[in-house]
Amino acid sequence: MSNNHIQPIFILPEGSQRSQGKNAQKINIMAAKMVAETVRTTLGPKGMDKMLVDSLGDVTITNDGVTILEEMSIEHPSAKMIIEIAKTQEDEVGDGTTTAVVLAGEFLKSAEGLLDQNIHPTVIARGYRRATSKAIELLEEITKPVTAKDKDLLINIATTAMTGKGAEAAREDLAEIAVNSILKVNEDKLDTDNIKIEKKVGGGVEDSELVEGIILDKERVHKGMPPSVKDAQIALINTPIEIRSTEMDAKIQITDPNQMQSFIDQEEKMLRDMVNQIEKSGANVVFCQKGIDDMAQHFLAKKKIFAVRRVKKSDMENLARATGGTVVSNLEDLTEADLGKAGIVEEVKTGDEEMIYVRGCNNPKSVTILIRGGTEHYVDEIKRAMEDAIGDLAAALRIGKVVPGAGATEIEIAGKLSKFAETLSGKEQLAVKAYAHSLEIIPKTLAENAGIDPIDMLTELKAAHEKGEKGAGLDVYEARVVDSWKMGVVEPLKVKTQALTSASEVAVMILRIDDIIKAEGMKQQAPGPDASMY
Predict the structure, then answer these.
(1) What is the pLDDT of residue 527?
(2) Distance CA 196, CA 343 (A)
(3) Could you give the CA distance from residue 86 to residue 99 in angstroms, rounded to a whole number?
(4) Chain centroid, CA 39 distance in Å
(5) Which stretch of DSSP H or E encloses residue 511?
């Protein structure tokens, strides 16, 4: 029987689309490069902003890489992989998301040239991994130590993180606030969750302040209560100050009006007992995570006890750390030992709304930064800049090492990696050289975003580093090469190592994909997150 008439075998549903080999690689690389190009113009002090408009018409204006990528509705699976490294960078360090994404895009762009030379993706991947390992090793050689005592250096780190984030006018003041806040919680394992950032539209950015305590976007529950309490003894209560309903359906039958009055009197007595229990503990301020009955509010006001209800769990935890109090779940267990202490608790009109300030805490382990600004969009961007600064400071103090910014680190590592590549043999050498060349995208982008000729600047930077000036970076304001250390442009080592590692890993993962299968026919059979990838 002739083999010419063998029935073809279909292993994929009808309507499936498939890209294989170089075509698949080029599609993935193109998607990743497009994501990188989207955020590339936001890099550096002269980076531009993006306006993002969602389906409801809400507007976000920012140059924060991870915010831009999260707000964009990206469908391509390879592009989503690039977004993942931005999220990882944000979670691990809190800054450097744009750098990580731009590097990933450039690594893939350089790999594309190697693929065109018929170099196998596995060889490129091996070279990239080796280059990353060597780059992290070389980074250690250009670091400087930093501790909590180096306040000037910490302020430089915070200022560098905020530069280009819309906070230019008051970045020195904001950097001081960020450093003071991180030093306050430094003893508590540098948990940035202990630094609460509140924002309020109104005033100017220079009105932003650090409160050694907690600010709550709340108001006292009863206007009969004092607007402020000095030498506050604070009860933190995680139980409702109201009559509990029964856990099962219950029906109360009243046949006599006197019974009704007795029932009301009993409820009132129970609420009065709760308030008496609070007063007995010595508390003159109450923060309740649950509700407070109207009658209980009246009794608290009569006793001049300041009370706030419906406080978030995270805020209750911050209050406990700031005041030294204990959150109590049973009023009967409340004693003087459970109370937190503060110099003053007051209700302050901020903008057009009331806010509760808990100040003057003794050695608080949780603090609050209040961000002010003229518009909601501006305040949001300043908050993002402050989060970046605090993330950088925490990363710097955890590792205890910093590196020069302004493109100095990338140029230094690129030069040394190129020399390292010459010690290798075979096609792996080309991959390491491509990796080294890709690192130059950071200073090149800084120059382009500032309207400076990138070729001239790269040439000058390379010449300075050849002379042994390891801290030589780009001053985008004066269009010249300067010593980044002296200029105070410094970044945590962790920002660079995480960006290099994440960018390299995602580039290698995308390079190793040689087949893309889009199965349209599977939509009806198994709808799920992978049914439609594009």
Answers:
(1) 39
(2) 19
(3) 9
(4) 17
(5) helix 493-511
* Count of domains for the chain: 3
Please check whether residue 383 lies inside any domain of the structure: no
Instruction: Please give the Cα distance from 77 to 263 (Å, whole number).
Output: 64
For residue range 385-434, what is the model confidence (pLDDT) as tens digits?
888 888 888 888 888 888 888 888 888 888 888 888 888 878 888 888 88
Give the domain-ending residue among 209, 224, 253: 209
Of 234, 453, 249, 226, nearest to 342 (Cα)? 234
Instruction: Name the 3-class secondary structure at 292.
Output: strand
CATH code of residue 316: 3.50.7.10
Angle at 27 between CA 26 and CA 29, to 5 degrees: 60
Which is nearest to 457 in space by CA: 473, 468, 471? 473
Same domain, 410 and 458: yes
* Catalytic residue numbers, as ranges: 64, 97-98, 388
Q: Structure pTM?
A: 0.76
Residues 100 and 510: their CA atoms lie apart, in Å, by 15
Q: Which of 408, 377, 389 is nearest to 49 (CA)?
A: 377
Strand partners, 292: 241
Whether 197 maps to a domain, the answer reads: yes
What SS3 class is residue 402?
strand
Strands lying side by side in the sheet with 401-404: 144-145, 401-404, 490-492
What phi, psi does 191 have (nearest 5°)? -80, 110
Three-class secondary structure assignment of 312-365: CHHHHHHHHHHHCCCEECCHHHCCHHHCEEEEEEEEEEECCEEEEEEECCCCCC
- Both 204 and 219 in a single domain? no
Same domain, 205 and 253: no
- Residue 127 clears pLDDT 80, i.e. is over it: yes
CA angle 364, 370, 376 (to 5 degrees): 155
Boundaries of domain holding 196: 153-209
CA atoms 113, 118, 119, 125: torsion sign: positive
Q: Examine the domain organization and report whether 255 and 138 are in the same domain.
A: no
Q: Where are the beta strands (DSSP E) in 55-213?
A: 59-62, 144-145, 195-201, 209-211
Distance of alpha carbon 229 from alpha carbon 145, whole angstroms: 44
Do residues 467 and 414 share a domain?
yes
Same domain for 220 and 204: no
174 falls within a domain: yes
Please tell me the distance from the alpha carbon of residue 502 to that of residue 104, in angstroms, as a whole number: 8
Within-domain flag for 369: no
Verify that 218 and 329 share a domain, yes or no.
Answer: yes
Domain boundary among 333, 363, 393: 363
Question: Do 457 and 417 lie in a common domain?
Answer: yes
3-state secondary structure of 166: coil
Mean pLDDT of 99-121: 86
